[in-house]
Amino acid sequence: MTQKYEPVIGLEIHARLKSKTKMFCACSNNTWKSEPNEHTCPICMGFPGSLPTINKEAVYLGRKMGAALGCEIKKFSKFDRKSYFYPDLPLGFQTSQFDEPVCEHGNLQVIVSGEKKSFRINRLHLENDAGKSTHSAHNSLLDWNRAGSPLAEMVTEADFRSPTDVSAFLKEVQRILRLLDISDADMDKGMMRCDVNVSIRPFGQEKFGTKVEMKNMNSFRNIEKALEFEIDRQTKLCNAGKKDEIVQETRGFNPDTGKTFSQRSKEEAMDYRYFPEPDLPPLIITQEEIDALQKEIPELPSSKILRYLDAGIGIAEADALVNDKYVNAVFEFVSEKTEDMKITSNWVLGALSKYLNDNLEYSLVNFNPENLVILIQLIQNNKISNKIANQIFDEMISENKNPEEIVEAKGLAQESDTGAIEIICKEVLEEKSDLVEAYKSGKDKLFGAFVGQVMKKSKGKANPQVVNELLKKLLS
Ligand code: ADP
Ligand code: ZN
Ligand code: MG
Question: Which residue CA neighbors atom 17 of ligand 1 most closely?
Fold first, then answer.
């Protein structure tokens, strides 16, 4: 008999904070396009006698990340040395936080497949990054540009029950980091990295099973695939009565085979010999400063999405509306004034997004959202049809013109004058007398064709509602 098992997953996520300089020295933290070892100094290279200074901006960004993740910001916090040897760790230890992290006990709400879920965060601490080694057949090269860059590491509770939970959460964290300018959070550039811990347990059992850890995963897709493989592997072992063969270990993932493999077991686990960093003072923050920081956190994407869903917007659209902060700002501004989220969403995700895709040099910073308000109101008040609105959209945006003026100048205002429209309707019915016969003998579907002809003849200016009413009257 095969038993049903439930996956239990917890995450450790590193984010490179977007401060101008490194965590403990004045070297630039913007090293993405630099030559190797361009941004180094005695402090981040760990020369004897050099002394670190704490980067205020990095601490601020780390705390801001904690606040956005619903954490408690600790009034007292301190740095500790985490000692281990690694060729790209210049000081022989990492400056991290052990028992007094900057933030604790968070909670993030995420929409997973349209459903609201919430995941707890155990802690968030600050530390500095190591350098980067590149190995070839004959030598190893070391680049210390990244050494000393500020990282925030958050550790979640083991609250995830599926790979889908995990990817929804990671995408939400990435989105928040970008929206709040905390980190660029590009996984492929190592600016957001994730260690994934996974175990399984029989449904209904409270006690966790033995976990394995997959370190430094750098794409959402690989994380999902690795988890699927690992859950399957552990389930098969349990079902085969070989539960003991699941051991606490670090496993790697090979994207080519889609399989995980054993890297090192717990017996080889390191003793980091943590002790308080003697060269740095503790981090203290007052309640007033905490309150001020918390006020800086805007409404988060998941809460916006829920509002949009309530207004009848689809989940994919709601999601798209919060991805980019400028697009979202336009949407919020315009929908508040038009009082119609749905039609506003159609314009923002339709014509506006298309324009942005087709004109990559155009920046929304130059866009006057008031013009989109006016355009939508012109439609709402039956002054122009959707078709005309689409026709003038590009001119409105590229020349930053008031759409009302374009309509005026081009004589595009919608014709609601019944008399004028009735004349066109009659003309059409006369021209298409054969179709009128067919319609009257039961081909109801032809009605649409009459409407289309009238709209065409009026160059899209006739009010479709009026056309419909008049045609119905004339044909009855
Ligand atoms: P370690 O001491 O091995 O680093 P931690 O207790 O610090 O383990 O937890 C690291 C991460 O692993 C956390 O995200 C935690 O939620 C998760 N985790 C802990 N135990 C399990 C388990 N049995 N199964 C899955 N995840 C776990
Ligand atoms: Zn430096
Ligand atoms: Mg740990």
Answer: 10
Average pLDDT over residues 130-137: 90
Relative to the CA of 11, which ligand 1 atom is closest? 14
CATH code of the domain covering residue 455: 1.10.10.410
157 CB-contact burial (10 Å; exposed 0-12 / middle 13-18 / buried 19+): middle
**182 and 95 belong to one structural domain:** yes
pLDDT of residue 293: 96
Please work out whether the CB of residue 11 comes within 6 Å of at least one atom of ligand 1. yes
Q: Containing domain of residue 346, as a range?
A: 324-410
Ligand 1: which atom is nearest the Cα of residue 157? Answer: 16
pLDDT: is 92 or 63 the higher one? Answer: 63
Q: Evaluate whether 212 touches 198 at the Cβ level (below 8 Å).
A: yes
pLDDT tens digits, 432-470 = 888 888 888 888 888 888 888 888 888 777 888 888 888
Residues 374, 439 within the same domain: no
Residues of the chain by 3-state class (helix, strand, coil), percent to 5: 40, 20, 35
